[in-house]
Amino acid sequence: MESQEESLQVLTGLGLTVLEAKVYLTLVRTDETSAKTISKASNVSQPDVYRVLSMLENHGLIERIIAIPHRFKATPIDKGIAILLQRRDNQSALLHKKATELVQSYEGKSAKTTTTFQEEAAHFILVPGVHVHRIRNAVDNAQSNVLCFTTLDMFRKVRFITEDVWKRGVKRGVKYQFLIGKPHDEEVTLDLDPALENNGNFEIKFMRASSPCIVLIDKTEVFLRTEMNIEAPVLWSDNACIVAMIENYFEMLWKTPEEQH
Questions:
Q1: CA–CA distance, 50 with 36 (Å, rounded to integer)
Q2: Distance, CA of 26 to CA of 8 (rounded, Å)
Q3: Is 99 in contact with 214 (CB distance < 8 Å)?
Q4: Which of 246, 13, 233 is nearest to 134 (CA)?
Q5: Do the beta carbons of residue 231 and residue 132 sit within 8 Å?
Q6: Is residue 90 part of a domain?
Q7: Would you state the torsion angle of the CA atoms of residues 252, 256, 258, 261, taken in this order, to the nearest 10 degrees?
Q8: By percentage, how much of the chain surpasses pLDDT 90?
Q9: Among the three residues 77, 93, 128, which one is the final residue of a domain in this structure?
Q10: 197: which DSSP letter?
Q11: Are 196 and 138 in a shared domain?
Q12: Is 231 strand, coil or helix?
């Protein structure tokens, strides 16, 4: 069974707010109950509970039972997840359609203003957090290796949206190496997928220190998180000097790890 934190991460990843996820999980774990009881069990204020219940009802994730006081019952978790997945798919399809129309509307209208200096300059792009899929796609398209500095908390968050990419990568021979920083000397259980556990192409080593969040792909492009937040903007670069510096630093730390998982 997943922990409360992991369950919240899954539901927020599917589009619920943190409060919506807390209230929904509380109802899933109980039978039909009142808003007052939900508030106490979820540690969410009663006014917020009433507001969130209306949203969840609109999503089709709960049922309202007419009584005095009103009582509420959760849609079973399997059906609830299916509803959220379908909603996300619908949103993605609509966004894809509108994005395609936007690109078509600008075709042929963009003036090229590239100078000789710009042609020779390496790129530095700040990618908004909403475009986290760009990192996922880059990792999915990796041809040889992916090197990653990260924190234990960030690794666990990213795993939920990227583990399928890792599994595809190791099957085609891509090598993944993770240096994970953890501030305390503690036992860590990652519960990796069997396809990754003990796989020679998927290695993890721990450092007893905080770590930046950096992903280096095929030794050609790098993504650097500006904050320890999965939704924070990400700096992307293919600057050869930056790439080489990060690669050398990673290899130095990899050869002298404190702990190995």
A1: 9
A2: 11
A3: no
A4: 233
A5: yes
A6: no
A7: 90
A8: 38
A9: 77
A10: T
A11: yes
A12: coil
- Both tokens of 201, joined, read 């192409």
Is residue 53 situated within a structural domain?
yes
Do both 134 and 38 map to the same domain? no
**Rounded Cα gap, residues 257 and 261, in angstroms:** 10
The reply to whether 234 and 135 lie within a common domain is: yes
Whether residues 156 and 249 share a domain: the answer is yes
> How much is the pLDDT for 141?
93
What 3-state class would DSSP assign to 249?
A: helix
Task: Check residue 32 and report its DSSP letter.
Answer: S
Is 82 contained in some domain? Answer: no
How many domains in the chain?
Answer: 2
Examine residue 169 and state whether it is found in any structural domain, yes or no. Answer: yes
Strands laid side by side in the 71-74 sheet: 33-34, 71-74, 62-65
Helices then strands, each counted (H, E), the chain? 9, 11
pTM: 0.53
For residue 246, give its domain range: 118-260
Residue 130 DSSP symbol: G
CA 35 to CA 199: how far, in whole Å?
Answer: 48
pLDDT tens string 8-56: 999 998 889 999 999 999 999 988 899 999 999 999 999 999 999 999 9
54, 77, 100 — which closes off a domain?
77
